[in-house]
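Researcher: Can you fold this with flavin-adenine dinucleotide in place?
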Amino acid sequence: MRERLAFLSAVITSVLVLAMSGLLAVKLQSDAQAGASSGAQNLDREEEARFARGRALFFSEGCAGCHSVGGEGNPRGPLDGVAARRSREQLRDFAFGTGTAAQELPRRIAVAKSVYAELSDADREAILAFLESLH
Amino acid sequence: MIRAALWLALYLGLVLLPPALLVLLEPPRSGGFAWDFAMILGYSALAMFGLQFVLTARFKRATAPFGIDLIYALHRWLAIAALLFVMVHVILLAWRYPAALGSADPLRAPWHMSAGRLALILFAFIVLSSLLRKRLRWAYESWRFWHGLAATAALLLAIVHAEGAGHFLNAAWKQWAWGALAAFWIFAIIHVRLLRPWWVARRPWRIASRERLAGRMWRLRLRPVGHEGLRRFEPGQFAWLSFGQHPIRLAEHPFSIASAPGSEELEFAIKELGDFTSTIGELSPDTHVYVDGPYGAFSLDREPQARGFVFIAGGAGIAPILSMIRAMAARGDLRPAVLFYGNRNLQRTAYRAELAALAEQCRLKVVLLLHEPETDWEGERGYISEGILRRHLPEKHDGWHAFLCGPKPMLALAEKSLRRLGFPLAAIHSEIFDLA
Ligand SMILES: Cc1cc2nc3c(=O)[nH]c(=O)nc-3n(C[C@H](O)[C@H](O)[C@H](O)COP(=O)(O)OP(=O)(O)OC[C@H]3O[C@@H](n4cnc5c(N)ncnc54)[C@H](O)[C@@H]3O)c2cc1C
């Protein structure tokens, strides 16, 4: 009987945790929709192919852990259309946490991005070319 | 009941408050329902894992309304739930956002992702090994050691994972709040592994006497060395005992206190069952004993309005009940009580003379129940049943409370019989001796 009681309490607790987590997620959705909806443009297939190398690096170097492109990767940091917002210099600085972006980015992020100093120039150029395709 | 509900509400609050704060204050950028749900579930599961340590950290107030056996059962079921939640967290991401998970190769993956993966593997190991321990014939002490170690490592890795991934930690105060919460869980670990042992180690006990009671039951009396001992507890509560020169915390065992509160010495009634208990007879008299207690909610002191008591004990289950009856005698408590005490035969029945003496002193009726009695036995035979209860309980027993302690099958029978007699659930209290 006591074990049944423990089991029931655990089930009730878990269901409540699940339900509340769902509600919180729904709340976040509605907040986001109320705010400015970020128009995620779909990526042009041809361009995507052209910058395949930069794109591959984008995913293999962990950018996709924080950013998404065309719905792939972490959807909370969409980069679709960044090239329209940012100059090439800014793209470089923000992508790799260098220059003025080092101050503008949250400190944690700047630290996380500092590992990209180890990328080769060619790799960085490829990523940049890929970013520039994101109009 | 109300207190228990309040504690459950507190638990829910502690699990849901962190993700709620992260989401509701300075809302982070949404990533779509699946993403947000997976993240929030991850945070909730982490909070549940953190609280696992708090559940077993022996904070007396938290365990009091439930009883230790219920806490451990909750600990087990909630671990399974939390593991399922983490799996949903991962599966949802792997299904909808595979690129966000990145490479599983620890050489290529960011360290916080590898930490998360390792934590998941450890959590799964902990849950499975605990559920299968008996089937794997894994010795309790060794299992407990690895359980504690793996759980601590897994929790630290999971905290690193959440901080490193940093989703939803979009403000400095959020990171601070997370650090504080993590510190609270880690404090629970430090409390149970370092502070409590240290406190207990400063208050050693010696074996004052030890004798074989009946069959495989021993009576152990402990005397405090250089401190005032443990005089204030509720009769029926238990303590964790460890033996040896040092209080090796991993080799501690729970035993109910059989003596009444208020005396210098503590008495325990211990049955030889396995590796540890069968060495009771060989302990040298100057062994140090360490006592961590009292704990538990199995006590008539919790039911001050009870008008009478049914006690049902089997074998070593007599220990907490003896403490209650002795306390009644010492306090001059004249509420009526009936004790049903089951054993194999008369020779195996401990405390016979003492129980007879207590029956004279209080309004106590003692009914011995033997399932393989000696040939000349004229009392009750077999196991506890509705019929036996009816024969010995007064016609009117409303307002009575029942206290049950013994092997699980006996508890199940006793509960069923009591329910048939009209005892409400809230008036039936039981203590299970098996935590694992
Ligand atoms: C609240 C409570 C009060 C108890 N009071 C008494 C009492 O008054 N008298 C008495 O004889 N027994 C009592 N027990 C049972 C006692 O703790 C176990 O019988 C003892 O720990 C078994 O140890 P062992 O090494 O001899 O047996 P083992 O061979 O190790 O194991 C036998 C079984 O006991 C369980 N067990 C072993 N060690 C522990 C441990 N440290 N904690 C929890 N479970 C364990 C395991 O599930 C195992 O399957 C009580 C148990 C609990 C939970």
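Model: Folded with flavin-adenine dinucleotide in place. Residues B 68, 134, 140, 238, 252-256, 269-271, 273-277, 296, 316, 319, 431, 433-436 surround flavin-adenine dinucleotide (CB under 6 Å).
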